[in-house]
Design a protein that fits this description.
flat, about 700 residues, Heat Shock Protein 90, alpha+beta, Serine Threonine Protein Phosphatase 5, Tetratricopeptide repeat, 26 helices
Length: about 700
């Protein structure tokens, strides 16, 4: 399982690079110089980069450099911006295509020298930040992780200095790519989303369109890695719609549109493969391969598609088709090497041969995989974030290696085993009879155990019914006791009012009378709370709209909040309905908001939030900015009677039954309630209730 998951993550990252590869050229060609002045010099550089990239796409690096150098040298005057763009092409395109990261880093260093002479020029800063991202990528390839992270950090810190929102959007895109490669999918998602918003300010040209289409793809991939499949499907569909719009807006870019659709097919194929829909996954992979075959160009994208087809056919037990694509990939890797893809190819070939019982060949292939994995582990030994994942992959591969080794040994010793087994036929018969009897005995014990379990289950169900009856009787008893206590306490309360009079009286006696009156008032409030609970329990359940109920609760307590100069903010999603007893549920929510007011310091904010959790539940969150709840009190906060009573921030007293009643009400509504808190910072009570359709 660990190997499969690790392989899926590696494939997803490769697919991500495949998606990004289509837009990287557009970034370097069109986006690297935004915002730009539409002067002749800029347009000429654009044409040079575009022409040279056409050769690079065909794998003709020498022709690409010759074309660019000849066109560049034909001009007599070169501005610093022209030189920066030349270094950016050489470092970010040419040496990257030749897989010479050392020369790429050295070339990109020249951009820093030009930028340092005029840091105020916005276009210089834009190109300098882009060069930092590229240097980080190349240093990462070289294993210079400390330098790579320093490059990424410097770029990230410079982004806020960029005034133009369009340029900021481009840099957020690159930052998202860095996060994604490190497995920080949550951060990658946020960067891609921010980039999509910022690039809405770019000019309405093809380069901006292509970048925004890639951002939708990358958002889908990020959500897929976060296992948020609904969002992943949403952004995939949005990307498809975006492509359809682009086909109408930019008919001359038909090649890009088709290539982007091929990437979407590979992306959808990956998602379907992960979910076990191999046939549907194969259809999308074949569509992508058909387009790449039509181009008749060997590149990394087409190699990844071959790998996908070989793996899918292997999983579908179509050995001939799997061998065809894996062999074709092997031949292509001799022309265009990809070390990571070579390791995955060897692993797939090993699995395929093992499935065909060719254990010796599988063992040889897997040995090469282990050697490559070991080399990779050594090269990544300084990268802490990769250690654990690589260790899981290594252990899983070692287990597979051991299994193949045992199978090979088993095959070698088969003849010896046949000779030995003939000598132990009699012993085998005896052992068979012995184990048969033991199995019968064990079966009897299992049956006896099941009978005992059935009896205990019956006892537990009987006890549960008794407890439910007892609980109802206790509720009735509490209601009767509360009703009996209510009347005499009211009389004591009335008499106490007459006793506490402003006439001259012994001060000590006056204090005692006031204390008696206050204590009796508290007791009356507690008893009335119990009586109201018993009465409200008889209220029928009905479908209610939760946002309106919450608004009513807040309106009832606005005066109490104003006394402490508190602001109550409501964030409520409308049209969420639940089956509830309105009075009881209002009592629970009122109690929680009252507690928030009680324990909030003056001039703070209380937030009441209502939103949908998953598909079937609504979640109500009441958060204050008060004194918080100590950790030792969290477990007993809902006890009845509680031992966690505390005075409010202005001395307000607690009666100890409110939260226990809240818990009972929520549980009666088939919901749940819990609390999160940090001492001195906040306390947040959360209610989860099942949703129903509107009445």
């Amino acid at each position: 399982m660990e190997w499969t998951k690790a392989r899926q993550i590696v494939f997803s990252k490769r697919l991500f690079r495949c998606c990004c590869g289509i837009a990287i050229g557009l970034l370097l060609f069109g986006c690297e110089h935004k915002p730009k002045q539409n002067d002749q010099s800029e347009l000429l550089i654009d044409a040079m980069v575009s022409g040279a990239r056409q050769y690079l796409d065909k794998g003709e690096e020498s022709k690409a450099k010759a074309y660019f150098d000849s066109a560049f040298s034909s001009r007599t005057m070169h501005s610093p911006l022209d030189s920066m763009r030349r270094f950016l092409f050489l470092g970010g395109n040419y040496y990257e295509s030749r897989q010479e990261p050392e020369l790429a880093v050295a070339t990109l260093d020249s951009i820093h020298d030009i930028w340092s002479h005029d840091k105020a020029e916005p276009r210089y800063l834009h190109l300098y930040i882009l060069s930092l991202f590229l240097k980080g990528d190349f240093n990462f390839q070289l294993g210079n992780y400390k330098a790579a992270f320093k490059n990424y950090y410097d770029a990230r810190m410079r982004i806020p200095e960029v005034v133009d929102p369009c340029s900021q959007g481009h840099h957020q895109y690159r930052l998202g790519m860095v996060y994604y490669r490190q497995g920080l999918f949550q951060d990658a998602k946020e960067s891609f989303r921010k980039s999509f918003q910022l690039t809405a300010n770019c000019t309405n040209d093809f380069e901006s369109y292509a970048l925004r289409q890639e951002l939708l793809n990358n958002l889908a991939l990020s959500f897929d890695q976060l296992n948020d499949m609904d969002s992943a499907i949403y952004y995939t569909q949005k990307s498809e719609t975006f492509l359809q719009d682009g086909a109408q807006r930019f008919p001359s870019k038909d090649t890009y549109i088709k290539e982007a659709k091929a990437v979407l097919d590979i992306q959808e194929s990956s998602r379907l493969e992960k979910n076990g829909h191999l046939k549907e996954s194969l259809k999308h992979a074949l569509k992508a391969q058909a387009w790449q075959e039509q181009k008749q160009v060997l590149n990394k994208d087409s190699q990844k598609t071959m790998m996908t087809l070989g793996r899918l056919y292997r999983k579908m037990h179509l050995a001939d088709s799997a061998n065809h694509w894996l062999n074709q990939l092997d031949r292509s890797l001799a022309v265009l090497p990809q070390p990571e893809l070579k390791s995955e190819l060897l692993s797939e070939v090993s699995r395929l041969k093992a499935a065909n019982h060719q254990y010796e060949q599988a063992y040889q292939e897997l040995t090469q995989v282990l050697e490559r994995t070991s080399q990779k582990r050594n090269s990544l030994s300084n990268l802490q974030s990769f250690r654990l994942k690589d260790e899981f992959v290594r252990l899983d591969q070692e287990g597979l290696h051991q299994q193949l080794f045992v199978n090979n040994q088993y095959r070698t010793s088969w003849l010896v085993f046949i000779l030995i087994i003939t000598l132990f036929v009699v012993l085998g018969v005896i052992l068979t009879v012995y184990y048969y009897r033991m199995a019968q005995k064990g079966l009897i014990q299992v049956n006896s155990f099941h009978q005992e379990l059935d009896f205990r289950n019956w006892l537990l169900s009987t006890s549960l019914a008794d407890l439910q009856v007892t609980n109802r009787q206790m509720d009735e008893l509490i209601g009767r006791v509360a009703s009996e206590l209510h009347t005499p306490m009211l009389k004591i309360q009335e008499y106490g009012k007459y006793l506490v009079i402003p006439e001259p009286i012994d001060p000590e006696h006056q204090d005692m009378l006031v204390l008696m009156q206050q204590s009796n008032d508290k007791a009356v409030m507690m008893v009335e709370g119990l009586i109201n609970i018993e009465k409200d329990d008889e209220e029928p359940f009905q479908s209610i709209e939760l946002s309106a109920l919450i608004q009513n609760c807040v309106d009832e307590l606005k005066f109490s909040a104003q006394l402490k100069q508190l602001e109550i903010v409501i964030h409520a999603v409308p049209s969420l309905f639940a089956m509830a007893q309105p009075l009881l549920l209002s009592r629970a929510i009122n109690n929680l908001i009252s507690n928030a007011i009680k324990f909030s310091k003056p001039r703070k904010r209380i937030q009441v939030t209502l939103h949908q959790k998953k598909a079937d539940y609504a979640q109500i969150e009441i958060r204050d900015e008060g004194i918080g709840i100590p950790p030792e009190m969290i477990d007993s906060i809902f006890d009845q009677p509680g031992n966690s009573n505390r005075a409010g921030t202005l001395g307000e007293e607690s009666y100890g039954l409110g939260l226990s009643i809240c818990k009972k009400i929520i549980q009666d509504h088939q919901g749940s309630i819990w609390v999160e808190s940090e001492v001195g910072a906040f306390a947040q009570f959360i209610i989860s209730l099942p949703l129903t359709k509107s009445s």
